[in-house]
Amino acid sequence: ENTTVEVPVACVADGSVTIGGKDVVMMAGPCTVETEKQLMTAAEAVRKAGAVILRGGAFKPSTSPYGFRGLGEKGLQLLAKARHEFGMAVITEVMTPSDVAMVCEYADILQIGTRNMQNYMLLDEIGRTNKPVVLKRGMSATIEEWLLAAEYVLSQGNKNVILCERGIRTFEKATRNTMDISAIPVAKTLSHLPIISDPSQGTGHRHLVGPMTLASIAAGTDALLIEVHPNPDEALKDGAQSLTIQQFNELMPQAQAVAHAI
Ligand code: PEP
Known about the structure:
The protein is an alpha/beta fold. It is built from 9 helices and 10 strands.
């Protein structure tokens, strides 16, 4: 039987949303929490457009040690404030086993980033909680390796695992990563777990986020994880792949149309 993951969300009538249910769930927000104003503006906008889960990185796995590495616990506090204000659930990344308990206090969904897909100590620690967890596919991982990473979490007792396709490393340079859309139906065939799609990290370019969102829905994704920034050109991180609020507003009805059509 397929697994579904319930996430408590105050702003919806039922008080929760189901990942892996009949509706495609929208998770959106800034790549990284930068300031209270930036986060609140983004949260208010994506909520108004129909997103029910707010994304935002507080602990950032930056490729360069000189890049912005996030606000840490202060970022988590801002996410909690946005959750309170807009009734959204919060998804945010946790990078080390020692931070799991702390991040659990603020987040409704834990995110394991691509770079940590095979951090087995982290997988074990998260497996000992029962928080919903989004497990991103390692950028060079096969689908089998990804599913085995999911087993680490499941085998410790946490059954609330959600897979996330976020693009893989190939020889192609036109995109930051190569979005493996086929991984969505493949994972659905091989696994009982719900799967979501991250077309922002998956492409690295905001003009590709819309087409890959629609393609992911057509391929059967259960949810989307999309980066939206009030002013992407001034973002401290990943501005090139962040949608403007207007672009997100335009994308939402298109996403709903595809979801209804399939
Ligand atoms: C992110 O979503 O903030 C992120 C860093 O993603 P990934 O782990 O897919 O690179």
